[in-house]
Write a structure and sequence with these properties.
7-stranded mixed sheet, alpha+beta, 19% strand
Length: 179
């Protein structure tokens, strides 16, 4: 039979085709006076905000928040939230709400439930950290290891449900996924 990811992909393409976008378009920040993209990657990805809008119309509801993007590979699905702000400025309660609502949408739209969460990972994308001279000194001039950080703020998802949550730059995410 078809596995969860194939099913999700099929359903996303058949029922949410108009929500298909790119990682770059999903990463746009329109809040400043000029648009900023946190990713330049043209890989196809689903605009999860658009899937949320369709979900709200279908269910006649309004107060739903969601992650920015759903990116699907052959063995994993990624919920991605792009935040064009410093890590210290992140509003984790809002991000938690987006995660909860997104998981509800995945459950209702794609039959994804807790038993599938190990096939799902979440990424909070922030701008590149500046490798300041103090950082270089502390690291004895070595290049900083650019690995995604596990988000302790979202440990409810990772520790209780096994859904790993990371914070990283878009470059680190793309390296991690291999795109």
């Amino acid at each position: 039979g078809m596995n969860l990811i194939e099913n999700t992909l099929k359903k996303a393409f058949s029922e949410h085709f108009l929500c298909l976008s790119t990682l770059k378009e999903c990463s746009i920040d329109t809040s400043k006076n000029h648009n900023v993209y946190l990713s330049t990657n043209m890989e196809p990805a689903f605009d999860f905000d658009e899937i949320k809008k369709e979900f709200c119309v279908k269910n006649d509801i309004t107060h739903v928040s969601s992650m920015d993007s759903l990116y699907i590979t052959l063995n994993k699905m990624y919920l991605i939230e792009f935040k064009n702000q410093k890590n210290s400025k992140l509003k984790w309660e809002k991000i938690k709400n987006k995660m909860h609502d997104s998981l509800s949408i995945l459950n209702k739209e794609f039959n994804i439930n807790e038993s599938h969460y190990h096939q799902l990972e979440a990424f909070i994308i922030t701008p590149p950290r500046n490798n300041s001279s103090i950082n270089k000194m502390l690291n004895h001039g070595k290049k900083l290891v650019n690995e995604p950080f596990e988000c302790t703020q979202l440990e409810m998802f990772s520790e209780v449900y096994g859904l790993k949550c990371y914070r990283s730059t878009s470059q680190e995410l793309e390296t991690y996924i291999g795109i």
